[in-house]
């Protein structure tokens, strides 16, 4: 009997694939990141946003950033088809904002202060840094899509950043 025709072996294989996936996620979590909230408008002009820690810098000339979005995110269509998006780097005291925007499809914008930026893209009022981007390219990346953004405008107000490490929020250790 081959492994594929044995139901017990199939279950074992499925479990180990799941375990391996969890182990990979846990291992990737050793890489400490900042936390961002990315915002845009959906096709009907409603603000959408989500918490993202896959953000990174790519290029200075041209000015490019990237982040990746899970294909199963409710805001997937909005972000992969929008003209522009805004990336907000969160401050150390904005854990509640991260949790709010990590909620699936929740009413996220009723609970934070924001205003309309260029192109009517929602800009959060308070954050450590902001990058207003034109969506430059979508790159397929397995169960995620990588979004390249050309930075059109940027600003920083500074302050301690919110840090994410091994599934938990952290503060920067003193110098
Ligand atoms: C710290 C943190 C980082 C996250 N980073 C990402 C990310 O980079 N890409 C992603 O697709 N989801 C990420 N998520 C999950 C989304 O924020 C979450 O799935 C959210 O519900 C998506 O919103 P939506 O389903 O309303 O579109 C992250 C969540 C947390 C708490």
Please give a structural write-up.
This protein has 175 residues and is of the alpha+beta class. It has 2 domains: 1-30; 31-165, Roll (Pnp Oxidase, Chain A), CATH 2.30.110.10. 20% of the residues lie in helices and 39% in strands. The chain contains 3 helices and 12 strands; from the N terminus they run H-E-E-E-E-E-H-E-H-E-E-E-E-E-E. It has helices at residues 7-28, 76-81, 95-101; strands at 33-34, 36-41, 47-52, 56-59, 64-70, 84-89, 114-116, 122-124, 129-141, 144-156, 163-165, 168-170. A 7-stranded antiparallel sheet has the order 3-2-6-9-10-5-4. A 3-stranded antiparallel sheet has the order 1-11-12, with no helix packed on it. Strand 7 (114-116) and strand 8 form a beta hairpin. It is globular, with a radius of gyration of 18 Å. The structure holds flavin mononucleotide. Flavin mononucleotide binds at residues 35, 50-54, 67-70, 73-75, 98, 102-105, 164.
């Amino acid at each position: 009997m081959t492994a594929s025709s044995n139901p017990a072996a199939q279950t074992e294989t499925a479990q180990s694939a799941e375990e391996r996936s969890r182990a990979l996620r846990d291992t990737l979590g050793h890489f400490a990141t900042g936390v961002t909230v990315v915002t845009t408008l959906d096709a009907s002009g409603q603000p959408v946003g989500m918490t993202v820690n896959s953000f990174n810098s790519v290029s200075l000339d041209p000015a490019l950033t990237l982040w990746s979005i899970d294909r199963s995110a409710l805001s997937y269509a909005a972000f992969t088809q929008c003209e522009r998006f805004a990336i907000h780097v969160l401050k150390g005291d904005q854990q509640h904002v991260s949790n709010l925007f990590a909620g699936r499809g929740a009413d996220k914008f009723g609970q934070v202060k924001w205003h309309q930026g260029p192109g009517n893209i929602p800009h959060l009022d308070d954050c450590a840094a902001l990058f207003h981007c034109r969506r430059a390219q979508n790159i397929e990346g397995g169960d995620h899509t990588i979004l390249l953004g050309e930075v059109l405008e940027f600003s920083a107000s500074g302050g301690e950043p919110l840090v994410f490490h091994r599934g938990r929020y952290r503060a920067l250790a003193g110098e």
